[in-house]
Write a structure and sequence with these properties.
Layout (H helix, E strand, L loop, with lengths): L4 H8 L3 H7 L8 E2 L11 E4 L2 E4 L5 E2 L1 H9 L3 H6 L1
Antiparallel strand pairs: 1-2, 2-3, 3-4
Length: 80
């Protein structure tokens, strides 16, 4: 499946924090518990339209956030 470059650019520039909230991540002061592992203290941070987990060292843009959250391909995460 081909995703047009202009659509990818729009998705890439989405605010990761807003996207994460829409998919149920509870964010307080730009931090949250990581959805990829057991997390006793918030290790997931949001800044400048990016996300980063400082415990498992994963991160990226809004597309990669959806890709990791739901174990999707790049194309599937773009249409989600």
């Amino acid at each position: 499946m081909y995703i047009p470059e202009n659509i990818v650019n729009v998705l890439h520039n989405l605010d990761c924090e807003t996207v994460a909230r829409k998919f149920g991540i509870n964010i307080v002061k730009h931090q949250a518990h990581c959805f990829m592992h057991e997390d006793k203290h918030p290790s997931l941070a949001f800044k400048n339209n990016c996300w980063k987990c400082f415990a498992c060292d994963k991160g990226g843009d809004a597309i990669s956030l959806i890709k990791e959250m739901f174990n999707l391909s790049f194309q599937e995460s773009c249409i989600t």
